Amino acid sequence: MKILIYAEHREGQLRKITYENISLARTLGQPFEVLVVGNEVQDIQEQLGRYGAEQVVFYKNAQLENYSADGYARIVAEAVKERQADVLLMGATSTGKDLGPRVASILNAAMATDCIHVEMEGDNLKLIRPMYAGKVQATIRLTSAVKVVTVRPNVYQASEAPVTAKVDTKEVSAPDFKTVVKEIVSGAKGKLDVTEANIIVSGGRGMKGPENWHLIEDLAQLLGAATGASRAAVDAGWRPHDEQVGQTGKTVSPSLYIAVGISGAIQHLAGMSSSKYIVAINKDPDAPIFKLADYGIVADLFDVVPRMIEELKAGN
Ligand SMILES: Cc1cc2nc3c(=O)[nH]c(=O)nc-3n(C[C@H](O)[C@H](O)[C@H](O)COP(=O)(O)OP(=O)(O)OC[C@H]3O[C@@H](n4cnc5c(N)ncnc54)[C@H](O)[C@@H]3O)c2cc1C
Description:
Elements: E1 3-6, E2 9-10, E3 13-14, H1 16-28, E4 32-38, H2 44-50, E5 55-60, H3 69-82, E6 87-91, H4 94-107, E7 110-115, E8 117-121, E9 124-131, E10 136-140, E11 147-151, E12 166-171, E13 199-203, H5 214-223, E14 226-229, H6 231-235, E15 256-260, H7 266-272, E16 277-282, H8 289-292, E17 295-298, H9 301-313
Parallel strand pairs: 1-4, 1-6, 4-5, 5-12, 6-11, 7-11, 13-14, 13-15, 15-16, 16-17
Antiparallel strand pairs: 2-3, 8-9, 9-10
Helix pairs in contact: 3-4, 5-9
Flavin-adenine dinucleotide (FAD) binds next to helix 6, helix 7, strand 16 and helix 9.
């Protein structure tokens, strides 16, 4: 069973999910290659080789500089056919969610999205994915010839296993793209994305307003964390949508998730329940978040968070 791993990149930089998927593929004991689609992508050989990719194929064209759904889908589908891959493995990221189904549709492939467990079972893959906002976990076996699988970021650790990667570059002719993305203007450059963060400090309606968000930001900065938010905070216009965690926001799996003034509605839990450790700060002892939390602090956040910041600043 041959696996083709889609290498995700943004602004010329490979994304962490690519290394996670390579590390996962190594454990499956099947031949795999890494597919890069783009134009200028930095350090392909060095970075992909570091995580154990021996064979890399780079489908290159100036028009592929930025991700665009229809163009990338056609090129990735072409690559799956040319490389005679049985499985296309990608991240359950915003790009993976957009690209995966399009490629699956072109290839008439079955697809499993947002998998949190991937293993070999005989000569097929056994996949586990949460369903119904995380209430159940489904075990899936795809029976089509070609399979498309997306894996939740941060579930598998990116582990180094250095090899010398062989990179075959192919200049592809640009199909007649319906859309070409000319420029991406990023809202907050350098901001750590919640889906890639190892630690997240998230705030909810309990924060009372945007003027108090410096507490979330200060705590996050001291912990090297990304900042997240509940939908209530986003809908109120206190935080940008790219920080929203949950069913209609992003799905995250950090090592540590600190929920500050968040009640723990099922739609919020759907996006963060696979975090390794959850700490909840809430003044209501009956808040549903405490059912899931590993550590709970029942207190007023305006007392607790400044004290945490002070302690961290003092190096405790
Ligand atoms: C279709 C659908 C999709 C949705 N998608 C999402 C989603 O993606 N993400 C999401 O988050 N929600 C989502 N929601 C909304 C969800 O149902 C909740 O309304 C939302 O998560 C509530 O946000 P919250 O916990 O910040 O606010 P609240 O539920 O109002 O909770 C605020 C909490 O703060 C605590 N608090 C208040 N003051 C303090 C204080 N001083 N100190 C300590 N604690 C304090 C309160 O005790 C309370 O528990 C969705 C809803 C629907 C219907």
